Amino acid sequence: MTTENTVNEENNEELNEEVNTSEETGTNTSSTFEIGDTVRGTVYKIEDKFVKAHIEDSDFEGIVPISQLTNKRIERPEEVVSEEDTIEGIVIKVENEEDRKNVIFSIRKLDESNAYDSLQSAKENDETITGTVMEVVKAGLVVDVGVRGFIPASLLSDAYIEDLDQFDGQELEVKVEDIEPEKNRVILNRKRIVEAEKTEERKKQLESLEAGSIVEGEVVRITTFGAFINLGEVDGLAHISELDYSRVEKVEDAVSIGDKVQVKILDVDPEQERISLSLKQAQASPFDSFLNAHSEGDVLEGTVKRLVDFGAFVEVASGVEGLVHVSEISHEHVATPSDVLKEGQTVSVKILSLNEDSEKVSLSIKETSDRPAREEQAKVYRDDTEDDGPTLGDVFGDRFRDLDI
Fold it and tell me: Which option is the CATH number for 210-282: 3.80.30.30, 3.90.45.10, 3.40.50.2000, 2.40.50.140?
């Protein structure tokens, strides 16, 4: 039987069975080569299903079946090897006879052995490696890292990815999560790379943010106490009191998820990764406009917005509220503001003071009207003595009524 007949297409399955049997039993038919040895040779002939090579420093001929050329799926040997190439592999069978001296060896097994050693080292040292996505399956990605590795969908990113096909053929940076060479099992992790990159980006952005600067962000989450706004790699919080110059009862009344907004950075804490933001301070203050248009002593109309024990807050312009102290509501004594005022009521107010630094306005309702004239009260004269005799009132009757005493 010729060498060609040994490895031709018709007998390829028989060859693979012999290879597997030799690997399992560890049979050695040569005093020159043993199964497991590493051999090197030069390719001199390429057939459809195998490659022939001259083995260095030997009269043996080397044969590599197409299945042993690479762990990749190929149709013809020419896809990975050419004549005159130097190839190296692990001996998986030896044929040492008078008319035939062949070693059948595997490039794939040597590559896999080296790859497993490299992968084990990468895992122990937490190194990042690069692999090419060979196949997309429902549960994740099959990746070539010298051997077939697998990235479960849950370890692909820090967020859910619906379309895995986008990664087909891509080179990805990964970490070795788990490795079992005896089971040909390699689990890879891309999520850790993504998380580490985002952590570094967050750190850089936190260091670049400056209190007082105005930046653009997107509303990504709403709570009862404020809105979280994404600035790129980090989120900041705009408290409900910082959403608008007008009083905001519900956050949803001021912003919606997905809104693009301008915000002013109030404070940055890089260690805690906390950022305080303000939407209203990124806008022109309505108080400034009000201050330019009005001065102390002006009388204008306003709307009662809130009633409190100590007075009433009256909106005198959009985003500008002033306080009418309880003592400034009426010329008459007012015990509780709600006794004389209602929320939503329109009232005339006089500006008592404008505080530019604190942006506070003091108002008065009573100063917009004249003090009512006092009604004269009848004087009553009483005699508290115990004398039962007639009093002056009894004697003179109503004559004292018209006297101004």
Answer: 2.40.50.140
